[in-house]
């Protein structure tokens, strides 16, 4: 059987595969490495969606699509019947959690303003000091999956308190339900979005959500841009009442003339939370394990859509 992967480096990172598996590299859908027949297992490029999903219909023998992303939103509903869709849950936990911690500390300690002052060669002490601090803050993590838990574990030594929110409450584990957000938001100094993009979470951060946040609170989005309504976010940020750290936006990439670029209370990064050097080794370790499971007829992990 054939396995298509998007990186040449992946070949050596997959580990040993059964002898009847042929690995080929498809980095660009317009340059097929061989005939489409026989491709049973496809790993699309990281964060591909949209046009890349068109290839799904051209692979007659496809059984598994293994994503390299934690989010599967661009693929759910597009995978043909009989094809299993798996995400890369776990692969991005350390990197995304690090980005969240970095973004929170950067905003609270005014690093973006200080970096701007450095570029102007200005000793901006009076402009920023005293800054805010993370110690003692109440952090609300919306999305209690593996990345949410990784964020909590990394923030714990900073002497903060946590509230975790999931789709449904898990009282035994101290996890609140999303329906409790109106009561939880006014209590949080930092609100971290880590939910998958689904029909339930699209537009979750709307005017009411933002209005419920306390004065001076920080909103951190490491989920997906459309989880927040951009117009409502821009309007609330314009008041200066809250600030934001955004790795994702809607639209993405953000057009050069978009209001979010120049807001002094916004830290923007171009969807890089998961893009670190450890990504490929972690990702292909998962892919290799999945291929071995598939060939052995064992159940796959991280199944989002079960094709069986
Ligand atoms: C992901 C991401 O979904 O990095 O993995 O956005």
TrEMBL record:
Query: What are the entry keywords?
Result: NAD, Oxidoreductase
Record's PANTHER family? 2-HACID_DH_C DOMAIN-CONTAINING PROTEIN, D-ISOMER SPECIFIC 2-HYDROXYACID DEHYDROGENASE NAD-BINDING DOMAIN-CONTAINING PROTEIN
Q: By what name is this protein known?
A: Phosphoglycerate dehydrogenase
The entry lists its GO molecular-function terms as: NAD binding; oxidoreductase activity
Q: Do you know which InterPro entries this protein is assigned to?
A: D-isomer_DH_NAD-bd (IPR006140), NAD(P)-bd_dom_sf (IPR036291)
Q: Does the keyword Aminoacyl-tRNA synthetase apply?
A: no
Determine the domain of life of the protein's source. Bacteria
Residue span, D-isomer specific 2-hydroxyacid dehydrogenase NAD-binding domain? 102-273
The species this protein belongs to is: Micromonospora citrea
